[in-house]
Write a structure and sequence with these properties.
CATH topology of the largest domain in chain B: MetI-like fold
Number of helices of chain A: 15
Strand content of chain B: under 5%
Strand order of the largest sheet of chain B: 1-2
Distance between the termini of chain B: 29 Å
Distance between the termini of chain A: 29 Å
CATH class of the largest domain in chain A: Mainly Alpha
Number of strands of chain A: 0
Largest interface: A-B, 112 and 113 residues
Structural class of chain A: mainly alpha
Order of helices and strands of chain B: HHEEHHHHHHHHHHHHH
Order of helices and strands of chain A: HHHHHHHHHHHHHHH
Number of strands of chain B: 2
CATH superfamily of the largest domain in chain B: MetI-like
Helix content of chain B: 55-70%
Structural class of chain B: mainly alpha
Shape of chain A: globular
Radius of gyration of chain B: 27 Å
CATH superfamily of the largest domain in chain A: MetI-like
Number of helices of chain B: 15
Largest sheet of chain B: 2 strands, antiparallel
Largest sheet of chain A: none
Strand content of chain A: under 5%
Oligomer: heterodimer
CATH class of the largest domain in chain B: Mainly Alpha
CATH topology of the largest domain in chain A: MetI-like fold
CATH architecture of the largest domain in chain B: Orthogonal Bundle
């Protein structure tokens, strides 16, 4: 019914409305992609061509100079391995370990809140919401004071404040998954399994994890993107040990060094582009889950 | 028969089938204890890691330390607070920069509403454009800032487009171009999330409202104003709060885009000195954690205002959980 009306209306307004929409969509696409294009094209120019003070978008002559510079002449290389490569592997494990552990724990906690009745449940959950809303981002750098004093700073110990606090679940994820379990996992299924004698942990692995997959996957993706792009904490705790840098820190230090001599825009662009590429590819492959993830959360907010 | 059975099971506190007399409930059952243990893990970890940070920062406000070691703490009364008065020019500058960053989040929100409205027109390829618009969101702010650094640099694309010869990030004659360059890099990146959220919000608005508006002869703009905007108010509220938080804690872009400068910490006349960047410079680089703590607390108090509002709203919602 509603569709029919809309279609009728669309037909009547056909040219103007559709045209304006397409122009706006194309315009915004252009705004988003011209900077990308500039970066990709600059990364393929030689330093000589960029320095010639006549700007042009497409390189006259393709050159791999920028990419060669960041991989073969990286001033931050450790034992000859370029810092971006080290950074990529460090990012992977430094992100995946806490993300997976924390997500499993968050899912378990959310499941307990959603499907078990225990005294004080409401107060615990209120406390959870409270911690979620506290804007502790303001204390991001002051945390350094605490970790210095318990000896978690310096060399490889700098990894501790980055990994340990993130292992114990996150209030936001718990809130999100609990809302999901409330609506997507029926009480009857759980009650029936309880009567069959399944324990809490078995229920979690056999019922809650498989049925919560879409929401858990969405949370995983966003946590992974956040971890991959994390910068300020690593800057604070890992700055002194190049072999532990994550990708963003390696990228910022490398380009910072290149900026000192005015030039090397090709290498800077190459480094920025190469660092963005893995996530863009991941996103394009998994875009359905990203968008779904936002939709699951969006409907419930 | 089947129906009554499921109904009885779904009643949470109901009497279990087969148990005729309601017995006094035991509190210390194995299951309850397990539940308590599980749900307290995240809470305990939260209080352990953040509680001490907060306590330490309060201590640090009233003293001076060597290398941030607490055992070297010397009480110096209100000296750190007095420094705020001496330093008010720099603080005011960083407040201004931070305000522009919050503004960038509001601008992103507006862009998100507008683009989501265009995406909801039901034209072909909507899904494709929605997918494209989300890409900047997955790019790191470090890489995006480097991208804009290259574009705004003196031999970059902007100068050749405008025919000028200015280093927009290090512009002595008009330092604020650096602030606005950071602004642009933020609004280039931030709207993607909002666009996708608004698209799903638009879909969830009851179509009958639009039909009613059609019958009343409302035009497209009136429908947007009177039906769409109220229908997305909850999500807008959430995105505004998230945006304020993100804007107030802007760090990555400021750190990457603001060049070293002879007359300040971050760019000419500190035009790139977002408050978080200032806290980093004072606390981590110069080791003045006492002073950095004061600045952090100021930021925290400002951020608490919208959060308290949100907590109250959430607690009201929780009554029916």
């Amino acid at each position: 019914m509603e569709k029919a009306i809309r279609q009728k209306k669309a037909k009547r307004n056909f040219p103007v409305r559709k045209l304006v929409t397409y122009i706006m969509l194309a315009f915004y696409t252009l705004i988003l992609f011209v900077p990308f294009l500039v970066v990709v094209c600059t990364s393929l120019m030689s330093d000589y061509e960029i320095g010639a003070n006549d700007f042009h978008l497409f390189p006259y002559e393709l050159s791999g100079e920028g990419y060669e510079l960041i991989f073969s002449f990286d001033p931050n290389a450790v034992n000859g391995v370029p810092s971006l490569l080290i950074g990529f592997f460090n990012t992977m494990w430094q992100t995946l370990v806490p993300t997976v552990v924390s997500l499993l724990l968050s899912a378990l906690v959310a499941f307990v809140y959603s499907k078990f009745r225990f005294p004080g449940r409401k107060i615990f959950f209120l406390a959870n919401v409270f911690t979620m809303m506290l804007p502790l981002g303001a204390f991001g750098f002051v945390g350094y004071l605490f970790y210095v004093n318990i000896g978690w700073v310096g060399g490889a110990r700098g990894l501790l404040p980055l990994i340990i606090p993130g292992l114990f679940g996150s209030a936001g994820t718990i809130f999100f998954l609990r809302t999901y379990y409330d609506s997507a996992l029926s009480n009857e299924v759980v009650e029936a399994a309880k009567i069959d004698g399944a324990g809490m942990v078995r229920l979690f692995f056999s019922v809650a994890l498989p049925l919560g997959k879409p929401a858990i996957l969405a949370q995983f993706l966003f946590a992974f993107v956040g971890g991959y792009n994390s910068y300020s904490a690593q800057l604070m705790y890992l700055y002194n040990d190049k072999s532990l840098w994550n990708l963003q820190l390696a990228l910022s230090e490398l380009t910072g060094m290149l900026s000192e001599g005015n030039g090397y825009n090709n290498a800077k662009c190459a480094a920025a582009f190469i660092s963005m590429l893995p996530l863009i590819i991941l996103y394009i492959c998994m875009q359905k889950y990203f968008i779904e993830g936002i939709n699951i959360g969006g409907g419930k907010e | 028969m089947e129906l009554t059975k499921t109904a009885a099971l779904s009643e949470e506190e109901s009497v279990q089938p087969g148990r005729i007399l309601p017995q006094k409930k035991k509190i210390l059952t194995r299951q309850n204890i397990l539940c308590w243990v599980i749900v307290s893990v995240p809470l305990l970890a939260f209080f352990a890691f953040n509680g001490f940070t907060i306590i330490f920062s309060v201590l640090a406000m009233f003293g001076e330390m060597e290398y941030n070691r607490l055992e070297t703490l010397q009480w110096n009364g209100f000296e750190n607070f007095i420094r705020i008065g001496e330093d008010i020019g720099t603080i005011w500058q960083s407040v201004k920069v931070t305000f522009v960053m919050v503004l960038a989040q509001f601008a992103s929100l507006t862009i998100a509403i507008i683009m989501a409205a265009f995406l909801s027109q039901g034209v072909r390829g909507t899904r494709f454009f929605q997918t494209l618009y989300f890409i900047p969101y997955v790019c790191s702010s470090v890489a995006v800032s480097i991208m804009w650094t290259v574009i705004f640099g003196w031999n970059g694309a902007l100068n050749s487009l405008l025919g000028t010869d200015i280093d927009w990030l290090n512009n002595m004659e008009n330092p604020s171009t650096l602030t606005w360059a950071i602004f642009i890099s933020v609004i280039w990146q931030a709207p993607g999330y909002g666009i996708v959220m608004y698209c799903s919000a638009f879909k969830s608005i009851n179509p009958a409202l639009y039909e009613a508006a059609d019958l009343d002869g409302a035009n497209a703009f009136k429908k947007f104003w009177y039906v769409t905007i109220p229908g997305i108010s909850t999500i807008t509220f959430f995105l505004i709060l998230a945006g304020i938080t993100a804007g107030l804690t802007t760090f990555d872009a400021a750190r990457i885009m603001a060049p070293m400068s002879w007359d300040g910490y971050a760019g000419p006349e500190n035009a790139g000195l977002a408050l978080m960047y200032y806290i980093y410079i004072e606390g981590v680089q110069f080791g003045n954690m006492g002073y950095a703590s004061i600045l952090s607390w100021l930021l925290f108090i400002v951020m608490m205002i919208p959060s308290v509002y949100l907590i109250r709203k959430r607690i009201l919602q929780l009554e029916d959980l």
